[in-house]
Write a structure and sequence with these properties.
Blueprint lengths: L2 E4 L5 H12 L1 H4 L17 H9 L3 E8 L2 E11 L2 E9 L8 H15 L5 E2 L13
Helix pairs in contact: 1-3
Length: about 130
């Protein structure tokens, strides 16, 4: 059963490994979220993840099952809205509903925090990207 919890400092390396595996390098090409052909280098590092965890206005929510990290999402309370980013699912589990569960968890937390607007940013160099 998938459960959710807020990330702790000791999770920083595992989160970093997950995010980099889902967005960069050959491992990311297993899933659909790869940025490997668009951007080089790492997507994040443990120090940046630790800063995000320590920020009192933000949270990294983890999706876990039997102590295995399946996915995560970064949430930051900002004036008038909730920013979300770093939506990450283990590449071999993409298209299996984990991302949807993370988005549902984000919406639940936004409601619990009394926030009714959510904002995100995306890379717009992907072929076929369209903004409405």
């Amino acid at each position: 059963m998938i459960t959710f919890r807020k990330a702790k400092i000791e999770d920083a390396q595992k989160i970093c490994d997950l995010v980099n595996s889902a967005y960069r390098g050959d491992s990311s090409k297993v899933g659909w979220t790869t940025e490997a052909d668009i951007l080089g280098g790492q997507r994040t590092d443990p120090e940046k993840i630790q800063e995000m965890i320590e920020d009192p206005t933000s949270s990294i929510e983890l999706a876990v099952e039997d102590d295995e990290l399946l996915g995560c999402i970064y949430l930051k309370k900002e004036t008038g809205y909730l920013y979300f980013g770093m939506l990450t699912v283990k590449p071999t589990l993409q298209n299996k509903g984990v991302g949807k569960l993370l988005l549902n968890q984000m919406e639940k937390l936004a409601k619990d925090w009394g926030i009714n607007k959510i904002r995100m940013t995306v890379i717009n160099v992907r072929k076929g990207t369209r903004f409405i």
